[in-house]
UniProtKB/TrEMBL annotation:
The keyword Ligase is assigned to this record: no
GO biological process: isoleucine biosynthetic process; L-serine catabolic process; L-threonine catabolic process
Any GO molecular function: L-serine ammonia-lyase activity
The keyword Flavoprotein is annotated on this UniProt entry: no
Cofactor annotation: pyridoxal 5'-phosphate
Record's protein name: Uncharacterized protein LOC103511890
Coiled-coil portions: none
Gene of this entry: LOC103511890
Organism: Diaphorina citri
Keyword list, A-Z: Lyase, Pyridoxal phosphate
């Protein structure tokens, strides 16, 4: 069955009061709301697996599938048109970082350490033994409520996957007790948020 595809003004358009979600109309009538994190993860997946660079609108179809909202497509052959390679390099960098965070491969945590010589070195040795790559370290001394020999360290690091994050969490809790991790977004977390909003 050959059918002409009607011309449309936008592949994706913002929804008022959506807090960063994108509405993606499809030719089949299927309409899905996709969060920014899923679009960033889709852009990352396309770069890593398909060696394609597309803007958010071009990755929104894959984002909808990655979000797990397309049950009616399970078991079917699906074609996703990839379009719009017009993405600014600064935005692309942000999308890659956000995609890594959404995929559990970029995590942040904070922990109180001894501010004496060797405190940071010990933490770095532990992180190296787990196999994570440190991207950023920030020291916070002025607002630490413990003694003056303590420092709060905020670390951003790269991991392989969510299982690697769990290992990192276990090792840090064993060595330091109290460790505060930032949100570790997972597909289950997003789906839980969606059901709570209903």
């Amino acid at each position: 069955m050959n059918r002409d595809v009607e011309e449309t003004s936008d592949l994706a358009s913002s929804v008022d009061s959506s807090e960063g979600v994108v509405f993606c109309p499809a030719f089949s009538g299927l309409q899905i709301v996709v969060k920014e994190e899923w679009i960033a993860m889709a852009i990352l997946r396309l770069i890593e697996m398909e060696k394609c660079v597309v803007e958010g609108a071009g990755a929104s179809g894959l984002a909808a599938i990655l979000s797990g909202q397309c049950d009616e497509l399970v078991g079917k052959r699906v074609v996703l048109p990839l379009c719009g390679g017009n993405i600014d390099t600064t935005i692309l960098g942000r999308c890659i970082e956000r995609g890594l965070a959404a995929d559990g491969r970029l995590v942040k945590f904070s922990v109180n350490l001894s501010d004496r010589p060797g405190g940071i070195a010990e933490l770095c040795t532990i992180l190296a033994s787990v196999g994570v790559s440190i991207k950023d370290v920030m020291h916070e001394r002025a607002w630490v409520t413990r003694d003056v020999f303590s420092v709060k360290v905020k670390v951003m690091c790269e991991t392989r996957d969510l299982e690697h994050v769990r290992i990192l969490q276990d090792v840090l809790h064993q060595n330091y007790g109290i460790v505060h991790f930032g949100d570790i977004p997972t597909p289950e977390l997003y789906q839980k948020e969606d059901s709570e909003e209903d």
